[in-house]
Structure formats: structure tokens, C-alpha cells
Amino acid sequence: MGLGVLSKLSIAGSPVHQDVKKLLFKLLDVDSVAAAGSSEADAAPLTAGKNMVTAANGTKCVILPVAVEGMAVEVVNTVSNQDLPVYPNTSAQINSLTATTGAFTVVAGASRTFFCDAPLHWYVGAGNLTGTATTASTAEL
Question: Residues 88, 117: contact at Cβ < 8 Å?
Fold first, then answer.
């Protein structure tokens, strides 16, 4: 189940309809998506509030849905040893990256939640872990 359901409901237009669309988007179940392509032009579209992404290989990617203010989209990179580029939809941007073509990288085995905080703008925390093992003694902690 994904955004296809929303488009069939013909929800668009007024601010009231946008609020309904946000609510329905959040209620949709978890979706499994195989990363595809190598740019925003051919990336696999994300269609749910929580997306379990497979097939990441460092270049295969996904693209966020059209941003509606207040929307949240979680992206889980299920591949334990490959990064996943995540692109914004046309004319949108993630953080301060280039609009449309600036991808945010979700590192191997990590997840990030993208928040639409303003029209055409996604915000995501940039604290990706690199997977480097660290140690600390009890005294250091």
C-alpha cells in the first residue's frame, strides 16, 4: 500500500486536503523498496511513511515523495555493507544540499527519518555513523 492509494482518493488542493493526505500517509504500513537507478531521474520511489530499502550498492538509490509540510518519511538501509543515496523530489532539497540532485547518504545498516519542515524542504539529522568500531574503558565512560 502506498501513495497510489492517495492518488486514487483524489486528495489534493486545499490545506484541509493536505492535512488529510499527511494523516493518511502516516497511517500507511511499512513498505519494502529495492533501490534502483543511479540518480534522481531513475531512483526507486518511496511510497510509505516507513521504507525498508534493499539492494543498496553505494550507487543504487531512492527518491522521497513530493514534500508536504509536516510529513515524515523513515528510510531504513537494510544492506549492512553498502551506502544508500536518498534524493529529494523535483525542485525540493534535503538540508542545504543541491535542490533536486543533492542526495543524502544513509550509511550501511542505518536508518534516518526525513521531515518536511517547509514547502519543498526536507530536514534530516546528519549524524551518520561510519561503522568504525570503537572501544572505551569503564574509566573513559
Answer: no
CA distance 47 to 80: 22
- Of 94, 6, 116, give the one whose Cα is nearest residue 43: 94
C-alpha distances out from residue 45 to 34, 70, 126, 136, Å: 9, 19, 22, 41
Which residues are CB-contacts of 1 (< 8 A; sequence separation ≥ 6)? 28, 29, 31, 48
Task: Quick: pLDDT tens for 86-136.
Answer: 999 999 999 999 999 999 999 999 999 999 999 999 999 876 544 444 444
Longest CA span, the chain: 60
Question: How is residue 38 written as a grid cell?
Answer: 543511479
Cell of 96: 542545504
Place of cell 550498492: 57
Cβ burial of 137 (10 Å; 0-12, 13-18, 19+) is: exposed
What DSSP assignment string belongs to 3-20?
A: HHHHHHTT--SSHHHHHH
